[in-house]
Fold this protein.
Amino acid sequence: MSAAREESRVPGREPLTAPVEDYLKAIYAIGRGSGAAATNEIAQRLALAPASVSGMVRRLADQGLLAYERYHGVKLTESGRRAALRTLRRHRVIEAYLAEALGYPWDRVHEEAERLEHAASDELVDRMAATIGEPEVDPHGAPIPTKDGSVDETEYTSLADLAVGASGVVVRVADEDPEMLRYLGELSILPGKRITVRSRAPYDGPITLGSGRQEISIGPALASHVLVAPLADRAGKRG
Amino acid sequence: MSAAREESRVPGREPLTAPVEDYLKAIYAIGRGSGAAATNEIAQRLALAPASVSGMVRRLADQGLLAYERYHGVKLTESGRRAALRTLRRHRVIEAYLAEALGYPWDRVHEEAERLEHAASDELVDRMAATIGEPEVDPHGAPIPTKDGSVDETEYTSLADLAVGASGVVVRVADEDPEMLRYLGELSILPGKRITVRSRAPYDGPITLGSGRQEISIGPALASHVLVAPLADRAGKRG
DNA sequence: GAAATAAGTTAGTATGCCCTAACTTTTACC
DNA sequence: GGTAAAAGTTAGGGCATACTAACTTATTTC
């Protein structure tokens, strides 16, 4: 039980609140690399009212974490970007650790990490990473930022955009929806899996894939959540 | 005013906030077994103003977690006790896990656990416990409550109360002060260690101990933070 | 057992973060 | 290029938790 509640800082990090870290993560995810994040999109990702975002965004700008121009969205400052990447590192290392060291199924690591990322110190996260061999990606294939704040920001191709005949290796799947993850698991569409687009039905219809020795068929909504590294054999992207 | 709040439950636990969990832990620690907890003592443990405690205590009573009589302190209800023990289990399992699985030094597990206990799900805590073999005590020797809410509440003797000539096994040390823990570590006064009181200087002076093949001397303030299970050989308690 | 002291409470205020309702600015379209 | 729709903002509240200052109740002391 803590006496001396004083500062209660987490070692190696300014004491950002959980909501603030969530805002920064969301803004990073939206404007990855460059673009500005729209108030409405932040609100949607965080399941908040746009008005709430306006208020918070102003405070974050005052703290120097965001560059904010009224009516024109926000961008992370360098300091904001660093804070976002620290949180992202925490999140993904925790996900990887839960899966690797504690046998968590990949569809449930996200939710647990979502809470732990705000409580774990950098030291804990670094120990976790070391214990499981400094992984470079989380269980869904998302790259883990390094301690010094760099990330692989390669933009991969969505499976929904891969042309018929093209092959690729699944590098990453969206991590938030447990049901979707379980389904992808059943189909064994997992990071590392090599797949080939065999056919696409018209009007955004099902996509048929060759994957290993089996053939499977998925809808475009699902396909859009699967990112692949195209293999240079026959075809490229589809417009 | 407040009634049951819906959303965002942590699996297997009512959605208590971090402050509430801290209050319950503190109240449990104060009145362990029976007694009522005084407002001032709660305030001191949590490093809060007494007025803040009055306010919170009323709300917790409204929620059925405390029995509260104005001007006469509080006691945990059965529901409050269960909640306190869940948090305590989380705390101690996490401490044990950090030490065992991640190589944390015993003087730093407390602080980290203090934050994680509010974010970890019961499932995570149970997986941690299973992974390190269902420990019964944390690294400082404190008993870990079981999932179904029972704890060993044995009251041990403080080393400060052990009579000259008496022997005992260290079962537990206070866990909050890292510096003290490092010092105890240097002296290798650790849970499991067998010690004998060789002499006591008068006027609350230093206590000389035989411990293994060495002889060490500690002050009564430190000794009061070391709990021992007396061995029935020569003498009993003092005072 | 009354006065002094300690302990505890209420009142009023602050902060962080959220909401809805109403208003303003930007954008998109004919 | 003016107007409707979309996007964003401000105004005004609410809730949880904390604080200080002032008041009340309980306990101690002579």
